[in-house]
Write a structure and sequence with these properties.
Layout lengths: L3 E5 L7 H9 L4 E2 L19 H8 L9 E5 L7 H10 L4 E6 L2 H15 L8 H8 L5 H6 L5 H9 L7 E5 H30 L22 H15 L1 H38 L1
Parallel strand pairs: 1-3, 1-4, 2-3, 4-5
Helix pairs in contact: 9-10
Length: 275
């Protein structure tokens, strides 16, 4: 059983899922096939061992360079679960993502209403602050998860401080904004080019029919190619969709140039025969 080398334990609605997904894009980091690594939530309450749980959710890999990472939001609030994590993976690095407590609480409340197990009330949060107390499920979910200072002391009492890394949601969001701003310089001219191609005379394949052989049957490759495309999209949706889109955009000018060259060659042949 491999070690989990990084666990994202930040607050709910603080960007933990996004951070975990972004890290998982690195070729040397591997996320499990579950959004939340829940084994430590139920340690001692399940007969399934940690090794079996990991074998079920981590794809089988043989490369020694692959490092396992995982995410369990709000884990920082539960000492017993942190202790279980440290017992099994004492060298695990922790990424604690925090967010402005008020905005995080309101975002979590809105998600609960969206999921349908609460009904939105504009005055609910104010009433909760007046009447709620630690130990109440909703108070802990919306208010308690934002008490980062005491939670961090709890984490430091189990894990060495050098293994605990705290990130602010606002800083991560700001950096993502800068990345998006840089992407605009690529996306803006590409959008203009694609818009102009829509009104151009370049010929694009419509996919209304498949190329047929002389006997009227469709070649097997024209059935296999769409299947391979679907598999590629399933393995890496964003990259595959971008690549397919760019290939299709370029295919129009390329097909048009090839057709014009063939037409010129035919004209040259006809002209030579007429002489």
């Amino acid at each position: 059983m491999r070690n989990i080398e990084l666990m994202v334990i930040g607050a709910q609605k603080a960007g933990t899922t996004s951070l975990s997904n972004y890290l998982g894009e690195h070729p040397s980091l591997l996320n499990p096939l579950c959004m939340e690594f829940t084994w430590f939530n139920q340690a001692g309450e399940t007969t399934e061992g940690l090794g079996a749980f990991m074998a079920r959710y981590y794809p089988a890999v043989t490369e020694s360079s692959i490092r396992y990472i995982a995410k369990m939001s709000n884990l920082y609030r539960y000492r017993a679960r942190l202790a279980a994590l440290y017992e099994h993976f004492p060298n695990c690095q922790l990424a604690l993502v925090v967010r402005d407590p008020v905005q995080r609480a309101y975002s979590a409340y809105r998600m609960a209403c969206f999921d349908g197990w609460m009904t939105f009330d504009p005055g609910y949060m104010a009433e909760l602050l007046r009447t709620g107390k630690p130990g109440d499920m909703l108070y802990d979910r919306f208010v308690g998860y934002g008490l980062y200072a005491e939670a961090l002391e709890e984490v430091w009492s189990i894990f060495p401080r050098e293994q605990v890394h705290v990130f602010r949601f606002e800083d991560l969001k700001r950096d993502m904004g800068l990345s998006a701003a840089r992407f605009v310089w690529f996306a803006a001219p590409l959008t203009v080019i694609i818009a102009l191609l829509m009104f151009s005379n370049f010929r694009y394949y419509s996919f209304k029919t498949l190329p047929q052989r002389e006997d009227g049957k469709v070649a097997f490759k024209w059935i296999a190619i769409p299947m391979l495309a679907l598999v590629t999209i399933a393995l890496a949706p964003p990259q595959a969709m971008l690549a397919i889109g760019l290939i299709y955009v370029v295919s129009g000018p390329v097909m048009t140039l090839l057709l014009r060259r063939r037409l010129q060659d035919r004209r040259a042949v006809v002209k030579a025969e007429n002489k």
